[in-house]
Design goal:
Elements: E1 4-9, H1 17-30, E2 35-40, H2 42-45, H3 52-68, E3 77-80, H4 86-95, H5 100-104, H6 107-118, H7 129-143, E4 149-153, H8 157-174, E5 182-186, H9 214-222, H10 241-249, H11 252-264, H12 269-295, H13 298-327
Parallel strand pairs: 1-2, 2-3, 4-5
This protein binds tryptophan (TRP).
Tryptophan binds at residues 6-8, 10, 41, 44, 138, 141-142, 150, 152, 156, 159.
Length: 331
């Protein structure tokens, strides 16, 4: 049987080219070799997004983003976490096999506790239990489908370790029931700089958006930080943030030619920025149209996600039934 790869996508605002290169593109590649299950982690988002309209809107945006960028819902099982009630059933069962200390040490939770302590506040101030048990829900997302491989960013590595730990504890008690998943950590994402040279991230305000109107793509491209070398000066392409982005989109010959031009001298940063912009337009213009069309037809998005949920539940149901049976609750 085909191996299963699964990942959860937290709905966060405007997608940028760092998301595309770091997560979306590799995930779509991986889907060629595995049965892929990709889902919108809307219940995870609820730990922080408490506005109904915003949560709905973010969910549609991320759904339209993945579809516009090439996810084929006939091949990838693409669904919304909140359409799978079995996730919660399993989440409870797993919570009974999760050492509380493991969650106390989870980075996301611990970071807020540390902030509270540093500010002289009560240590659990403003922390809801959903934030605390976030890793258990994530373990349920993964283990419910017999997942083999989970592609995630470095920030999720610890969550994967918790998932494995919980699954091993469960299996230690009941035998080999749950598949132990492997994390595939994407390091690539670290090397895609934002316009200021730090990792591209919404929180650094240094992104180049994918689906914004052209002038709003051009603006950040023009602001990419460079040194003050003149066009005729020889330059090191590896030091240039424009080049670091360009090389992910241009074909190999064009990249080689540019590399030479940098080294020999004769390249103006302004012209290079213009070229990068045009390349981004050529890459994303038709995808932007598709994105906008999908956002104008959210009924269609709902339909696609519901169909995905049906397929996902067909995989989940027998695994959940087995869990119920081995633990000794109503089967
Ligand atoms: N926690 C992940 C993130 O913030 C999203 C996520 C939820 C996830 N459930 C998952 C990722 C299961 C992989 C597998 O990015």
């Amino acid at each position: 049987m085909e191996q299963i790869t699964l990942t959860g996508i937290k709905p966060t605002g405007q997608p940028h080219i760092g998301n595309y290169l770091g997560m979306i593109k590799p995930a779509l590649e991986l889907a060629k070799d595995y049965q892929a299950l990709y889902f919108i982690a809307d219940y995870h988002a609820l730990t922080t997004v408490k506005n109904k309209k915003q949560l709905k809107e973010l969910t549609y945006q991320v759904t339209a983003t993945w579809l516009a960028l090439g996810l084929n819902p006939d091949e990838v099982i693409f669904y919304r976490q909140s359409d799978i009630p079995e996730v919660f059933e399993l989440s409870w069962v797993l919570s009974c096999f999760t050492a509380k200390g493991l969650l106390n040490r989870a980075h996301a939770y611990k970071a807020i506790v540390d902030d509270n302590v540093a500010a002289g506040r009560e240590e659990d101030k403003n922390i809801n239990i959903g934030l605390f048990t976030y890793p258990v829900l994530m373990a349920a997302d993964i283990l419910l489908f017999g997942t083999h491989v989970v592609p995630v960013g470095l920030d999720q590595q610890q969550h994967l370790e918790i998932t494995r730990d919980v699954a091993l504890t469960f299996n230690g008690n009941y035998g080999n029931v749950l598949t132990i998943p492997e994390a595939v950590i994407r390091k690539e994402v670290m090397t895609i700089p934002g316009i200021d040279g730090r990792k591209m991230s919404k929180s650094y305000n240094n992104i180049i958006p994918i689906f914004a109107p052209p002038n709003q793509v051009l603006k950040p491209v023009k602001r990419i930080l460079t040194d003050s070398k003149r066009p005729e000066d020889p330059k090191d392409p590896e030091e240039c943030h424009i080049f670091s982005i360009y090389r992910h989109f241009a074909d190999a010959d064009a990249v080689a030619a540019k590399r030479e031009l940098y080294i020999e001298g004769g390249l103006a940063y302004g012209a290079m920025k213009q070229e990068l912009f045009e390349l981004l337009e050529a890459t994303f213009a038709d995808k932007r149209d598709r994105y906008n069309a999908l956002m104008d037809n959210t009924d269609e998005l709902d339909k696609i996600l519901e169909k995905g949920a049906e397929k996902a539940r067909a995989i989940a149901a027998p695994i959940m039934a087995k869990v119920r049976k081995v633990v000794g609750v109503s089967a």
